[in-house]
Structure formats: structure tokens, C-alpha cells
Amino acid sequence: MKFLIDECLSPCLANQARNAGFIESTHVNWRGFQGKKDWELKPVILEEDWTFVTHNSVDFRGPVSKPGSKGQYAGVELHAGLVCLNSKAGMSLKLQKLLFEYALGQFKTKGITDLINKCVEVDCDQSADTVQFQLYDLPSI
């Protein structure tokens, strides 16, 4: 996997991925795409086979109740994966790092080597004490 981190998240996450062995990880800003709209990023994400990491989950996967029905990944038949970092407690740098670290750890623990046509949701509760990891098909099969 190689990760492209959305500009709504810190560039530190790209370094975090690199330190975890995902060497081809980068940040939207490092690629000169800061300020680009989601629909402008979509071709780059798909054509370059990036696993995209975002906090703007709804914008990319659509509503949580029906992923893939709307958003940038609606109608996309083949993609390298989507990682959604979610929190109702805000998204501080500390929390971003915690949620992404949890995701990276789950990939290793579960032996996940790619996220082709998959979405990962990493959620935490209001107090940020409980983290949940969910992996599902996107589009749903």
C-alpha cells in the first residue's frame, strides 16, 4: 500500500506511514495539490493507485449508512482503497496520529497487504477512549 494523506489531515501522518514501512506515502500538500477540490483529487488518486486517507469520509465514501452510493467513490469500480479517520470529538493532531497508528497496526495484525476496493473506517468515541476498526467492500459486492 501507498498512502496519499488528505490536506484535512497533518503531513505527519505521511511520515508515520513511512516509519511503519509504507515508504511511498505522501501528503496532498507535498504533491502541490493544496486547495484542490475533492473531484480534482479523484483522478490522481485513482490513476496513481493511492490508498487515500481522509477525515472527510462522507465526501469520499458517501453516507455511512450506504457507502458508495454518493461521494467521490460512487461508481468507482476499481480503487486502491480508502481509509476514513472519524471522530465526534474533533480531530486534533494527537487524535489523528492515534487513529492512523491504530489502522496501521490493524493492517499488520490482520495481515492486510492491500485495500483494493476496500474501505477502512477507524472511529473513536466522544472521549477518544475506544477505537473501532471496520473493513468492508467499496463498492459493496
If you had to describe this structure to a student in words, what would you say it looks like?
- The chain has 141 residues and is α/β, with parallel strands linked by helices.
- It has one domain (3-137).
- It is built from 4 helices and 6 strands.
- It has a 6-stranded mixed β-sheet with strand order 2-1-3-4-5-6.
- Strand 1, helix 1 (12-19) and strand 2 (26-27) form a beta-alpha-beta unit.
- The model has no long low-confidence stretch (mean pLDDT 93).
Entry summary:
With 141 residues, the chain is of the alpha/beta class. Helices cover 29% and strands 21% of the residues.
Key words describing this protein structure:
141 residues, six-stranded mixed β-sheet, 6 strands, globular
Number of domains: 1
Radius of gyration, taken over Cα atoms and rounded to an integer in Å: 14 Å
Q: Level of helix content?
A: 25-40%
Low-confidence stretches: none
Question: Whole-number average pLDDT?
Answer: 93
Portion in beta strands: 15-25%
The sequence of SSEs as H and E is EHEHEHEHEE
Q: Main β-sheet, in a few words?
A: 6 strands, mixed
Alpha-beta classification: alpha/beta
State the separation between the terminal residues, measured CA to CA.
22 Å
Global morphology: globular
What's the number of helices? 4
Q: How are the strands of the largest sheet arranged?
A: 2-1-3-4-5-6
The counted number of beta strands is: 6
